[in-house]
Amino acid sequence: MLEEVQILTLAKTGDTDAFAEIIKSYQKPILRYLFRLTGDYEMSQDLAQDTFIQAYQGITKLNTDLALKAWLYRIATNNALQHLRRKKLFSIILFNHLRKSTISTSESALEQTFESMAVKEALLKIPQEQRVCLVLHYVEGFQYREIANTIGVSEEAVRKRVSRGIAQLKVIFTSKGGNGI
Amino acid sequence: MKCKEIKELLAAYADEQLPPDRKQFVESHLASCIDCRATLIDYKAIGERLITLRTTADIPEIPEIKIPEVKTIKSRNTFRRLRYALAAIPIAVIMIILAVLQPWVSSSSPQAILAKAISAVDNVTSYRDSNVPGIYMMNPDGTWDYEHNSIFGEFVFPDKAHIVYTLNGVKNEYIYIGTNVYYSASNFTVIFPNIPGNIPNYKDTVEELKRITDLHQVSDEIIDGTNCFHFKGKDMSNPDDVDLWIGKDDYLIRQKIRTNYNTGTVVETAKYYDFNEPITIEAPLDSDGNLLPGWKVRELSPETQPEIVTVTTDSISGAETTTITSSK
Q: Is the Cβ pair A117, B138 closer than 8 Å?
C-alpha cells in the first residue's frame, strides 16, 4: 500500500491510477463535507464531482507546501461557497417537511435522527464563512491552523468565525424554546 | 477584560485552540464570572452536538465517483499539448484559418444550435414558465423520498418576477419588484437572497445547457404550436438524461425534461412560453398602498446578510408565526 505522499507524487505526473486512489480515499469525506455545507445531497454530489475534476486538472501545479487534504478541502469549499452564493429563492430547508407517520425505527434512533436534523437545520442558518469553519473543525476534525491553511485566512479569523458561529447557534437553539441546548 | 471580549474567545477555549497567554486570560476571568462560565457550558454542548454530525447515517448513499470520467479529462491534455505545438505557428495565420473554416462548428450541428440557444437568451425580456421539479425529502426515520412540487413563474427583466411555488398542496407566492420581495407563504422556510433580482430563471436553464454532453438530434416536434428541434443528451453532473426542445425560428427553449437514467423516473418537466409578451407584475397592494391581506414584504439589499424567514401556520387555530433569523 503506497503512502499518501507517494500517491501524490505519482498523481502529479499524470498517473490516473494514483489519482483514482486519491478519489477513493477522499470521496466520502468530501461528499459528507459538501453535504454539511449545502444541505443538498444532489448538489453535493455535483460539487464533489467538480472538486475531483478540478483537482485532477490542477494536481500537476499543486504547491507541495499545502497538504493534499487541505488542498482538496479548499477546492471543495470554494465550490460550495460559489454554489451558495448562487443559491437563490428556493433555498428551502427541507427538514420542516416531516410527513411520514409510519416509523420503522427504534425510539432512540428516531431521537438521534431528530437531533441530527435539528443541528443540520441550525447549521444551514448561519453565514457560510462561519459554517465552513464549524464544519471543518467539529465535523471534519481540523485544527484551527489547518482550517486557516485550507481556506487561506489567518488563524485569528478562523477563531472569530468559529466563535461567532457558535454564538449564533446558541441563539438559534435557544429560540427554539427552553434553553434549547 | 469585558465579558464580550471573553465570549469571543470561549469557543476556542472550549476547543483547546487558544495560545497559553490567552487561555490564562480566559481562565482568570472565568474564575470570577458566573455568566461566562454558563456560556462556556453552552458552547461545549453545542460543540458536542456538532460532533454528532461526523456520522454519515443521514446521507442516502455515497456513490463511487466514476474514474473513467476522470480519464476522459486526461485525454484533454492531448489538446493542451497540441495547443503548445500550434503556438509555434504564427498566431495571426492560425486565427485567419480558424475564422474562415470554423472547423469546430457546423451551423446545423447540435452544438451550433445549442450555442445559438445560449446566445438567444439575450433577446429575452419577459417570459413565463411552469416547472415540475423533484426534490429529496427526508423522512423522520432518516430515509429519503423523491417528491414533486410545482413552480409557476413569470419574469420581466431586469428585476420583476412573480413565482408561485406549491409543495404537497401548500401554495407559496412571491413577487419580486426591484429591491422588494412580497411574499404570501405558510409552513415554509425560505432563505431570502440578499441580492435584488437574483432569482432563478430561464437564464439559469440556459446555463445548464453548457453541462450537457452526448448531445444528439432526434425528430423535430411541435411544442405548444412552436416547431422545435428535439435534442437528447446527458447532464454530466447529474445521473439525468435530458430532452430539450428548442424553437427552430428563435432558438428559445420551449421544453426541458430530465429523466434519471438509473431509475427511468422523470425528475423535472419545464415549459417556457410567452417569450417577450407584455406581462404585468404588480405589488400586492390596495388602492391606498397597503399590503393586501396575507402578504408581507421584505426589502433586499446587497449590504444585508440573507435572512431566513420561517412562517408556520397552526393547523388548528390557523394562527401564523413568523420567525426571522438574520445574520448581522
A: yes
